[in-house]
Design brief:
With 263 residues, the protein is mostly helical. The protein has 7 helices and no strands.
């Protein structure tokens, strides 16, 4: 294959590909419909010219028929009057009129056939145009539907379910990790030495308050003989703190013993 043929082939292929990209089927079909409709007036003019020729030939034939009849009458009148010379002249005109009538009749026959064919062609074209127009409208509707589906497909691609699912899973894992870390920090903070020391200090404060309460009751003589032992036990048991419920129970027992002693 020659160089020029290869260049031509490449150019045609590139041009065809470019035209395929920019060619809009909907616009092409609409233009085709307009072109078909624009041809209807031209066809009507052509048919009208054929029919006008037929009408003209019909009139010429009618005039020739009248002329033949008139010449025939004139020939007969001239013969009756003995004017053979005039009769001969009329006979020459009659023969020419008859020839013209035969020729016009033949032309009229062809014109009539051409007129019928033109009308039939025009009607077939209009019928075919309507059919093609209906098909083109269906194709345009299908093209619009295809374009809409393409737009919907592109929109759905931007909201791909798989991508969204992976995004949600990734974010869920990050949030779960943050929650777990926060819970671990909270648990670690509640079990630190500072927190334990705070608990011990609160317990020591409770013991001091109970000792102070017993001291007041001892000064007021509200405690019996066992109050001192109880107080000493509580003081000596500093390493083992006594709960508030045990202290209150001991106070009640001491008061009961004092009541029995007074009786």
């Amino acid at each position: 294959m020659g160089l020029w043929a290869r260049i031509t082939r490449v150019f045609r292929a590139s041009t065809g590909a470019a035209l395929d990209k920019i060619e809009n089927p909907e616009l092409v079909l609409q233009q085709t419909i307009r072109d078909m409709r624009d041809r209807v007036p031209e066809l009507n003019n052509s048919v009208a010219q054929v029919m006008a020729t037929e009408r003209l030939l019909i009139k010429n034939a009618e005039n020739l028929e009248k002329q033949v009849v008139e010449l025939d009458s004139k020939i007969k009148a001239s013969v009756k009057m003995g004017r053979d010379d005039i009769a001969t002249a009329y006979i020459g005109q009659l023969q020419q009129a008859q020839l013209d009538l035969e020729r016009t009749s033949a032309q009229l026959e062809h014109a009539s056939l051409a007129s019928k064919q033109a009308l039939k062609a025009r009607d077939n074209y209009v019928l075919n145009m309507k059919k093609r127009t209906a098909e083109a409208m269906q194709l345009i509707s299908a093209a619009k539907q295809a374009k809409l589906q393409e737009q919907l497909a592109q929109t759905m691609e931007t909201f791909n379910i798989g991508d969204d699912a992976s995004t949600f899973n990734e974010m869920r894992e990050k949030i779960d990790r943050r929650v777990a870390a926060a819970e671990a920090k909270l648990q670690l903070g509640s079990s630190t030495v500072d927190a334990q020391m705070a608990d011990i200090e609160r317990e020591a404060m409770d013991i001091q308050l109970q000792d102070k309460l017993l001291e007041y009751k001892s000064q007021m003589g509200l405690l019996g003989s066992g109050s001192g032992n109880t107080s000493g036990k509580q003081i000596s048991a500093g390493s083992e703190p006594v709960s508030n419920e045990e202290v209150l129970e001991q106070v009640i027992v001491n008061e009961a013993n004092d009541a029995k002693g007074s009786n």
